[in-house]
């Protein structure tokens, strides 16, 4: 379910086609390192050097990795740290930048509803 989305555009060097639901940095690159600054989640991925639409706030399904540290409902989430680039993982308050909160639980690599803040 999508709700109250605030959208923006980013022109990445690499294609974001087929990467809907994955998080990107301010240059439009998929985030790998846990806690890295996060622009938002790919809403409509486009080819390289073409503006892709990014959801920067609101409720949307996002790729997460709960396999290392389980994600519970209402857990804070940070960008990166998953098995695949662009996945969100459970954040440690005071250590990682919190970018969203889980609206569903996850114990594997999957897609869940999150509230971006």
Structural write-up:
The chain is mainly beta and 117 residues long. Helices cover 0% and strands 40% of the residues. It has a single domain, classed as Beta Barrel (Virus Head Decoration Protein, Chain: A), CATH 2.40.300. The protein contains no helices and eight strands. Strands 1, 2, 3, 4, 5, 6, 7 and 8 form an eight-stranded antiparallel sheet that branches.
What does this entry show, briefly?
The chain has strands spanning 3-10, 23-24, 40-44, 52-65, 76-79, 88-90, 100-102, 109-116. It is mostly beta strands.
Oligomer: single chain
What is the total domain count?
1
Listing every helix as H and every strand as E from the N terminus to the C terminus, the arrangement reads EEEEEEEE
CATH topology: Virus Head Decoration Protein, Chain: A
Note the total helix count.
0
Q: DSSP strand (E) fraction?
A: 35-45%
> End-to-end span in angstroms?
16 Å
Helix content: under 10%
Query: Any guess at the CATH architecture?
Result: Beta Barrel
Largest sheet: 8 strands, antiparallel
């Amino acid at each position: 379910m999508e709700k109250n989305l605030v959208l923006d555009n980013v022109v990445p060097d690499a294609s974001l086609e087929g990467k809907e639901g994955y998080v990107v940095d301010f240059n439009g690159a998929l985030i790998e390192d846990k806690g890295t600054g996060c622009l938002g989640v790919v809403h409509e991925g486009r080819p390289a050097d073409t503006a892709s639409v990014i959801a920067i706030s609101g409720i949307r399904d996002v790729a997460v990795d709960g396999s290392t540290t389980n994600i519970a409902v209402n857990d804070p989430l940070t960008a990166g740290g998953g098995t695949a680039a662009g996945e969100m993982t459970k954040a440690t308050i005071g250590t990682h930048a919190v970018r969203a909160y889980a609206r569903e639980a996850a114990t594997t690599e999957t897609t869940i509803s999150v509230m971006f803040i």
